[in-house]
Amino acid sequence: MKSLIFVSSNDHKYNEFRDGFKTHNISIIHMKREYPEIQGRNHNEVIINSIGGLISVIEPPFFVEDSGIEVQYLENFPSIYSSYVFKTIGLKGILNLLKDVENRSATFKSIVGYVDENYTIKIFEGKTEGEITLSPRGTGGFGYDPIFVPKDSTHTYAEMTIEQKNRISHRAKSIKQFLSYLTGTE
Amino acid sequence: MKSLIFVSSNDHKYNEFRDGFKTHNISIIHMKREYPEIQGRNHNEVIINSIGGLISVIEPPFFVEDSGIEVQYLENFPSIYSSYVFKTIGLKGILNLLKDVENRSATFKSIVGYVDENYTIKIFEGKTEGEITLSPRGTGGFGYDPIFVPKDSTHTYAEMTIEQKNRISHRAKSIKQFLSYLTGTE
Q: Catalytic amino acids of B?
């Protein structure tokens, strides 16, 4: 069985990944650590800078993931600052910013960055369209999951089981592309 | 004609590249600028960190090149620090360190890092084996060229014309791989 290092401080992401990889006979080693997120203009830049910082301490191959939510009415805020915004103004802050706002459209994005043993770097993006709820619902998932209802669903991510979320989530989509690349069925 | 940005403060490198690209109907735009070289354990890491720093200011696609000489007797010094060492102790310093040393074997390496519009990063390495001379010879080229004689040659890089150097140089080899990749004949 092939094994691959996933660098992240986030257990939830690892839990969402795990099954998809197992199905393809790849085991993930979760290297649980924080790393400085050097910001860029977009997720691709953030990911490449993160990999650049990590390759000096971790021998490739490994992969990282960056995700974020873009709220249309807020000019796509908080995007690459999603994690920072979640830790500061939080879900309550986002809901306040959308108080009495009708257009609640939002896009959840997941970007996987993979660096292989030849130092080739590949980026995979998954996105899921949806809407911001009027109030938080559900206890599953993490981050913005309680206030995001994907298109064609009536449940927030946080109201779903991991299996349900994995059928439609932005992260499931980026990982699916990544797995196709790894297994050569791209 | 396709065009591609080459980011470098070095005119010599650009001059060596230019013809190879022209042959493949690709024009290079030389974006002449210094950029901070964040060091790593090897050229691959240096290159990826350079790209990481540049993508925040330059829209991909673009490419960079890092080169260095490794002197066997000196435990591969100066390698990724070649540029710094050249500017400080210089050719004279290297020749002093090899005073009365019989083993004068050295390897010249060129690493090209390319980031395309999808933020995929590819690394191409070229290397040429050779020897360090007893004293500087020739006025062509740049950097360590006056003290490096490639294998099967009696001339230093600095004693060759660009065309001659391009037939055997480490840089010509990394660029050849890069061109094969770009034109899909890899």
A: 66
Helix residue ranges, H only, chain A: 11-23, 43-54, 82-88, 90-97, 162-168, 170-182
A56 closest CB neighbour out of B45, B53, B55? B45
Residues from chain A that touch B47, judged by Cβ atoms under 8 A, are 119
**Are A111 and A44 within 8 A, CB to CB?**
yes
CATH number for the domain spanning A142: value is 3.90.950.10
Q: Is A56 near chain B, with CB under 8 Å?
A: yes
Contact A115 B48 (CB under 8 A): yes
Q: Please answer yes or no on whether A118 and B123 come within 8 Å at the CB atom.
A: yes
What tens digit of pLDDT does each residue of A86-129 get?
999 999 999 999 999 999 999 999 999 999 999 999 999 999 99
pTM: 0.86
- Would you give the distance in Å from CA A179 to the centre of its chain? 15
**Per-residue model confidence as pLDDT tens digits over B17-35:** 888 898 888 989 999 988 8
3-class DSSP state of B62: strand
What was the ipTM of the complex prediction? 0.78
| Residue range of the domain that includes B60 | 2-182
Name residue B148's beta-bridge partners: B132
B115: β partners: B62, B121
Dist. CA A106–CA B132, nearest whole Å: 62
How many structural domains is chain B composed of?
1
